[in-house]
């Protein structure tokens, strides 16, 4: 498939995404990312929470110097920021750090302290969803590390799909991977991972809203525990 040269219409992008989702369902993660890199070029980026750098590493092989977008919410663990800095230092990627319009102190002044406890959906909207929407404006397609086995809400994640909310092509190259697949890739290629993953955390988000998981819990159980919330809104 040739690269998208002229600005495609929304309908053309949607059709492209839906067709690719069907065509690439059984393709390998490197094949899916090569398709994305060849099709969208510099208007394709990877988003990373710096839980690990698996998708960034895969994408750097398909498109050296690929943009890797990271959301610095102001609430991250030190280990997460350290992982971002290490990825930027050792991988062939261009890390772009997005920040919310308000600092934590400014948000506290307007909404009151610990908004994440009182209204986690609003906090995620202000510190994650809105900054990402603004940061993705220059791209036609973006890649995520979503995997189907992570939680019931992600069970139907397509390897390539249409992000209706942002009107962009959404690529999830490791959607079919299991945790064993992730672990094997990390071990084979020496991929950077967040140190918290070896300290009882199965999914790493903002420090105030993330806890270690208990035996038998799914990977997302440590996020917003006790709040009936499993997603920040970036993928729903």
From TrEMBL:
Catalyses: [thioredoxin]-disulfide + sulfite + AMP + 2 H(+) = adenosine 5'-phosphosulfate + [thioredoxin]-dithiol
Cofactor(s) required, per the database record: [4Fe-4S] cluster
Query: Is Iron-sulfur there in the keyword field?
Result: yes
Listed CDD domains: PAPS_reductase
Q: Which InterPro entries does this UniProt record tie to the protein?
A: PAPS/APS_Rdtase, PAPS_reduct_dom, Rossmann-like_a/b/a_fold
Q: Which Gene3D superfamilies match?
A: HUPs
Q: Which residues form a coiled coil?
A: none
The record's free-text note on cofactor binding: Binds 1 [4Fe-4S] cluster per subunit.
Q: Does the keyword Thylakoid apply?
A: no
- One short Pfam name that applies is PAPS_reduct
Mention one GO molecular function.
phosphoadenylyl-sulfate reductase (thioredoxin) activity
**Main function:** Catalyzes the formation of sulfite from adenosine 5'-phosphosulfate (APS) using thioredoxin as an electron donor.
- Cross-referenced PANTHER family: PHOSPHOADENOSINE PHOSPHOSULFATE REDUCTASE
Q: What is this protein called?
A: Adenosine 5'-phosphosulfate reductase
């Amino acid at each position: 498939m040739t690269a998208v040269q002229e600005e495609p219409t929304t309908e053309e992008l949607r059709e492209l995404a839906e067709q690719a989702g069907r065509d690439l369902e059984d393709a390998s993660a490197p094949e899916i990312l090569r398709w994305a890199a060849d099709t969208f070029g510099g208007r394709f980026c990877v988003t990373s929470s710096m839980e690990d750098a698996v998708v960034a590493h895969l994408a750097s092989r398909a498109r050296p110097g690929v943009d890797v977008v990271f959301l610095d919410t102001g609430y991250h663990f030190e280990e997460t920021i350290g992982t971002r800095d290490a990825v930027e230092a050792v991988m062939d990627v261009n890390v772009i750090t997005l920040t919310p319009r308000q600092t934590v102190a400014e948000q506290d002044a307007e909404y009151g302290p610990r908004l994440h406890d009182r209204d986690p959906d609003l906090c995620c909207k202000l510190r994650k969803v809105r900054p990402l929407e603004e940061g993705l404006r220059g791209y036609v397609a973006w890649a995520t590390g979503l995997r189907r086995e992570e939680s019931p809400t992600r069970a139907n994640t397509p390897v390539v799909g249409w992000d209706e909310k942002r009107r962009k092509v959404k690529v999830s190259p490791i959607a079919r991977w299991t945790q064993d697949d992730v672990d094997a890739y990390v071990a084979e290629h020496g991929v950077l991972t967040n140190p918290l993953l070896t300290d009882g955390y199965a999914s790493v988000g903002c420090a105030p809203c993330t806890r270690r998981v208990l035996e038998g819990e799914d990977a997302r159980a440590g996020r917003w525990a006790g709040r009936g919330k499993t997603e920040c809104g970036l993928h729903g």
